[in-house]
Write a structure and sequence with these properties.
35% of the residues lie in helices and 21% in strands. The protein is an alpha+beta fold. It folds into two domains: 182 residues, no CATH class; 103 residues, no CATH class. It has an eight-stranded mixed β-sheet with strand order 3-2-6-7-8-9-1-10. A four-stranded antiparallel β-sheet has the order 5-4-12-11, with no helix packed on it. Helix 8 crosses helix 11 and helix 9 crosses helix 11.
């Protein structure tokens, strides 16, 4: 009997399979656009779309689950009473070609938006999604997911995981909907052979050996629980930060936001949620204009301690997935890896 938890998909069958999936759900895949940028994009025509499974998408899945700006509710005012109406429900969406680090980030967002109670808007989208990951046989230049235990392959959390074996994909089912998909479209697949197991394991070992940087992330997290970061490190980082906010916007686990009510007429309006960032000057500014945080010294301090100290203390792991996007975007060279290297080199007094 064929094991429907692990199957082989010939590459010639990929587009026909995706075409079938697209009939029942919205399909989002990494696509290279006319400017040469690879971005997760909703697919309307698979035959005319240049799917890019080689390069890292410049943005993660975050904008699909936590849009940069979204309407949380419509409201109206009648007899001085507010009446709120929920936005339209989410639609079924299949995300294909998601890297391990980006799904790990989504699992972190699940945790954040489940406390103190589940965020209805976020979980509506999440519950209507199926994530199909693609293991990284060739990690990207600035990735360090091996340091965050979020890659290059995953052990849990995915609907399906694809591993590229050359002319075929090794497909593993994770959560229930992934197994259901394999069962429904089983005629696209065939049974896994002994050689497939060997090739998969060899590719995993080779991928683990390709990471070019040794980032001591866990050591930094543990050290932060016991020690204070010297002021000279914060000063050095602050002097090189250009306050562009790029790190927060490309980070798949930065989930800070602000909420505003925007009138549309004298008695109607919308409640809007927008991205915010602890590195922004206005993040801690109070109503009277006073800001208790010194922007030039403490913005990056808030960011790095949040991710490496407080989240580690609360959840047992840092809220960094090693995707390397902040390294790519920071022209000041003050990304999270720079801080980790400076701090872990610091000797105990």
């Amino acid at each position: 009997m064929i094991d429907l938890k692990e199957l082989i998909l010939p590459k010639d069958n990929l587009i026909p399979l995706l075409r079938k999936l697209n009939k029942d759900a919205r399909l989002v895949i990494p696509v290279k656009n006319d400017h040469g940028d690879t971005l997760f994009t909703e697919i309307s025509d698979l035959d005319t779309t240049e799917i890019d499974l080689i390069n890292q998408p410049q943005a993660s899945l975050k904008p699909f689950f936590l849009p940069q700006q979204e309407t949380l509710a419509h409201y109206s005012i009648n007899s001085n009473q507010y009446c709120f109406t929920a936005p339209d429900a989410a639609i079924d969406t299949i995300f294909f070609g998601v890297r391990s680090c980006d799904l790990t980030a989504l699992l972190y967002m699940d945790l954040i938006f489940s406390k103190p109670s589940k965020d209805a808007t976020y979980y509506d989208r999440r519950n209507h999604s199926l994530i199909i990951t693609l293991g990284c046989n060739n990690p990207f230049e600035n990735c360090f997911c091996e340091a965050t235990n979020s890659g290059p392959y995953l052990e849990y959390g995915y609907g399906l995981q694809f591993i590229d074996l050359g002319d075929r994909y090794y497909v593993s089912a994770g959560r229930g909907r992934g197994a259901d998909l394999l069962e429904r479209w089983s005629y696209f697949f065939h049974e896994v052979g002994e050689e497939d197991h060997k090739v998969r394991y060899q590719l995993f070992l080779e991928a683990r050996g390709q990471f070019s940087r040794n980032i001591q992330l866990t050591h930094a997290c543990q050290k932060l629980q016991k020690e204070t970061v010297p002021d000279e490190i914060w000063q050095s980082l602050a002097e090189r930060c250009y306050d562009c906010g790029g790190c927060a916007y490309v980070c798949p686990t930065c989930t800070c936001f602000s909420v505003d009510d925007k009138p549309q007429s004298s008695n109607t309006g919308i409640r809007v949620r927008s991205w915010d960032a602890c590195t922004s000057d206005g993040f801690t500014r109070m109503a009277g204009g006073h800001n208790p945080v010194t922007r030039d010294r403490q913005a990056l301090k808030r960011r790095f301690l949040h991710k490496l100290k407080y989240d580690f203390a609360s959840h047992g792991k840092a809220s960094c997935t090693g995707c390397g996007r902040c390294v790519d975007i920071c022209f000041g060279g003050v990304d999270i890896t720079t801080f980790i290297e400076l701090f872990t080199r610091q000797q105990n007094p």
